[in-house]
Automatic annotation (TrEMBL):
GO terms for molecular function: DNA-binding transcription factor activity; transcription cis-regulatory region binding. Residues 44-63, 239-258 bind DNA. It comes from Embleya hyalina. SUPFAM superfamilies: Homeodomain-like. This is TetR family transcriptional regulator. Keywords: DNA-binding.
Length: 401
């Protein structure tokens, strides 16, 4: 039977007029590939139909809407990890870990689909995805605490989320290694994350934080609302009128400050990029050597990620929605930022080589981001110190004395 095959980063459809038995699976594979490469908002059902060599009307016989298809794609991205973890009752931990690593490399798009495209689902369907992710996290947390019973539930969850962040990090870059070498490295990095020694965790004091003196700038109010809403709902899921309403600015007054929704996104992404670059400049200027600079940079990034997880979410997930020139600038700035991390790590651990160092940097930052994305974890006292230790272990830094 005819089947779609991957070629050159896309899908070659089966010949028209053929009716492969696994058509539903082919549709899901084509949709996952297109959503991953182009983003949900920029993919039409007709694009997916073309990728599998069928008419759009036939596609609707399998999936009633594009949102329903997205839900199935996201859940299918979670399933291989869940299924690999289900073996934990019968297999030893190392075998289970290798199976999970293999699943994430086989479904490299999974992290982007969970964390970027899944936010565009309606609330009820998004809640279903969150339940699946929580179930996976709970299994990993239980495995960690079984091996390390002295850990609290919170410590176990932070380590579990960090380990999953490491495993999903290849979804956000295109660095490749020979398969056996890549499996070995990801197993080592995940093991480093989940065996790190977390700080003691406890709830933040119940006393409310000082309200502070509010800004009167309407531009800042709009920008703050936009950052928060883009991070929570995705750029494509927010209208500029919604942003104005959230900032208490009605109707056309919004356009006195920003020409368009894209202009708001440009301003938000630029702010996030410049914030990171300023922190990097400060870290490098105040350090005596590469290792000291890397440690200062790591602490700075953890604090930024915990304090401004909304901006991190934009930098990770929404840059593709920028206009062409702004998108190129933001991506180049991100490349430059990550290359500085890699340069420092290569200076500290020259035995890694450039490719491994880059993979370790992506894995460390992904571990941080995945924990900071979860509100009840980032609002926990001691989580920032724990993330410094975990990410340092992923980078291969020796724990400070």
């Amino acid at each position: 039977m005819a089947a779609a095959v991957r070629k050159g980063g896309g899908l070659v459809p089966p010949a028209r007029g053929t009716r492969p038995r696994n058509r539903r699976e082919l549709i899901l594979a084509a949709a996952a590939d297109l959503f991953y490469r182009r983003g949900y908002a920029d993919v039409a059902m007709s694009d997916i139909a073309e990728a599998v060599g069928m008419g759009p009307s036939a596609l609707y016989r399998h999936f009633r809407s594009k949102q329903h298809l997205l839900l199935q794609v996201v859940l299918d991205g979670i399933a291989p990890v869940r299924d690999a973890l289900a073996r934990s009752a019968v297999d030893d931990p190392d075998t289970v870990l290798r199976a999970v690593v293999a699943a994430t490399l086989d479904h490299r798009e999974a992290g982007v689909l969970w964390q970027r495209e899944g936010r565009l689902l309606p609330p009820e369907e998004r809640a279903e995805v969150h339940r699946e992710v929580r179930a996976v996290t709970a299994v990993v947390t239980a495995l960690i605490r079984k091996a390390r019973p002295q850990l609290s539930a919170g410590q176990g969850e932070v380590l579990a989320r960090s380990g999953l962040g490491v495993l999903l990090s290849p979804s956000f870059h295109r660095i490749d290694l020979p398969r056996p070498e890549y499996v070995r490295l990801l197993v080592d990095l995940c093991r480093a994350a989940v065996t790190a020694h977390p700080a003691a965790l406890g709830p933040i004091a119940e006393a409310p934080a000082p309200a502070g003196v509010g800004l009167r700038s309407r531009r800042e109010a709009l920008l703050g609302a936009a950052v928060r809403m883009f991070a929570e709902q995705g750029y494509a899921g927010v209208a500029i009128e919604d942003i104005g309403a959230a900032a208490g600015i009605a109707g056309p007054s919004v356009y006195n400050h920003f020409e368009s929704k894209a202009d708001l996104l440009c301003a938000a992404v630029t702010r996030g990029v410049e914030w990171l670059l300023m922190d990097m400049t400060r870290a490098l200027a105040g350090a005596d050597d590469a290792e000291a600079a890397l440690r200062v940079l790591l602490r700075s990034y953890v604090r930024f990620s915990v304090d401004r997880s909304d901006l991190v979410q934009l930098l990770v997930a929404e840059v593709s929605h920028l206009p062409t020139q702004a998108r190129h600038r933001a991506r180049q700035a991100r490349v430059d930022y990550l290359m500085e991390w890699t340069r420092l790590l290569c200076a500290v651990r020259p035995q890694y080589g450039a490719a491994e160092a880059r993979i370790r940097v992506h894995a460390a930052l992904s571990a941080i981001n995945d924990v900071a994305r979860v509100r009840h974890l980032r609002d926990t006292d001691g989580v920032a110190s724990t993330l410094v230790v975990v990410a340092g272990a992923v980078l291969g830094l020796t724990p400070p004395a």
